Prior knowledge:
Elements: H1 4-28, H2 35-52, H3 60-69, H4 78-92, H5 112-129, H6 132-155
Helix pairs in contact: 2-3, 5-6
Amino acid sequence: MASTGETVSFTSSRNCLAVVLWLLGVLVFPGCDEGPKQLAQAEARYADLIQRGVPPRDPAWDGVIAAFEAIPKDSKARAEADRRLEALRALRGNLPPRPLATPGATGPGTDVVDAQRAECERLAKELGLAQEARAQAVRRELAACREKLTRLEAASHPHGEGGEEHGGDAGR
C-alpha cells in the first residue's frame, strides 16, 4: 500500500495533467463556431426556394427563417444571417396599396407627365422596401405624387379629347 505522501503526489500529478490537457484543448480548439455551417445549410435551403420560384409569403420560407434565426448571436456568421432575415422580412411585410403607380420612362424626349409617372413609380418601389419609420413619409409623398400626376394628365389632353375624368376641363 502506498503511503500518504505518494497518494498526494499521484493526485497532484493527475490534476496537473488535467490542467495541461484543458489548456491544450483551449489553445488548439478555440471554441467551435457552428454558425458558418448553419448559415451554409440555411443558404442552401434559401437558394433552393429561390430556384423553384417559391413566393416569399409561402410557408416553405418559415423553415428558412427559423434556420437563419437559429444561428448563435455570437457567431461570425450572424451578420450575414441578419442581412438575409431583414431581406426576407421586408419581402414578407405588408405590400403597399394598389395601384402603386403607372409605369413611365425618363430621359431625353419624355414629357412632364412621363417624368411624373416615373417619379410615382420610384416612390411606390421605395414604399415597398421602406422600414416602418420611413414608410409613412413615403406614403404621403406617393399620394402627393399621384395627385400631381392626375393634374398633369388632365392638362395634357388635346382639345376635345376629354380630360374631365382627371378633373380637367373637357371644353377648354
